[in-house]
Amino acid sequence: MAGTILITGAGSGFGKEVALRLAADGHDVIAGVEIIAQVSAVRAEARERGVELRVEKLDVTDPGDRERALDWDVEVLLNNAGVSEGGSTVDIPAERLRRQFEVNVIGPILLTQPLARRMARRRSGRIVFMSSVAGLTVDPFTGAYAASKHAVEAFADALDQELAEFGVTVATINPGPFLTGFNDTMFETWKEWRDDPAERLFDYSALAFPHEQYDPEPVHAATVRVLLGEDRRYRHLLPGEMEPQVREQLAAEWDRELNDGRRPALVQKAYDIAPATPVRES
User: Fold this and answer.
1) How many other C-beta atoms can be found within 10 angstroms of the C-beta atom of residue 68?
2) Where in this chain does the record put each Ketoreductase domain (predicted)?
3) Contact indicator for 31, 55 with CB cutoff of 8 Å
4) Residue 2: pLDDT band by 50, 70, 90 thresholds?
5) Contact yes or no for 132/149 (Cβ under 8 A)
6) CB count, 10 Å around CB of 249?
7) For residue 276, what is the DSSP state?
8) Whether the predicted pLDDT of 181 surpasses 70
């Protein structure tokens, strides 16, 4: 058994499904959810699936919630909580930029610090970050989100080096475009902006997430393996078929030239694609 596994952001998406699967296999899981209403909702879903799952309110940006988590004797931590703010870098309001980093970077690291110290003193533990392919590459209109995930990548890499001698392992999960609703709602956050729409550079009602999206099953399965220590790799780019493309994209950065003044293909695709477009089965 992996010991007590804490999963943040378990009120929906990857986190919820991974928590339910681990609990179904008899593991001691704490599903941390952002708001109190999600506690009863996730508990109800666990009952429907016949699963014993502990659900706790854990907003990673709330100091009180983070302090309470110190009483849980966590041996495996999945930093999964995250939000995605879509929009051009020149348009996103300041408070939304700050929120992006508070939820995706600052809150998770402040939660990780005391838990990691305990793991180090115990000389065992596992810390996993739900990062993204956006932690390695960047698309138009995802600059804020990608910047937060690049920051996550930096912290994870540093922690992996710093905690090695203490018996603590670190890993990242790097999902590409998966059809969970997360990517599509990223392109609807502009509806909550408190700014002057006339000052925006883009009309966000005309844009959508510029990628076809995959079924999320590979992320669920891979994350379970990583949390249980069954997969010893540091980075897990999913789906695997994207890895050659991402490697090529990263290598091309060394020879990249200034833009030529024309609209890039992915910007145009954001205008052309319909929301929630799935990847076509071959």
Assistant:
1) 13
2) 3-181
3) yes
4) confident
5) yes
6) 14
7) T
8) yes
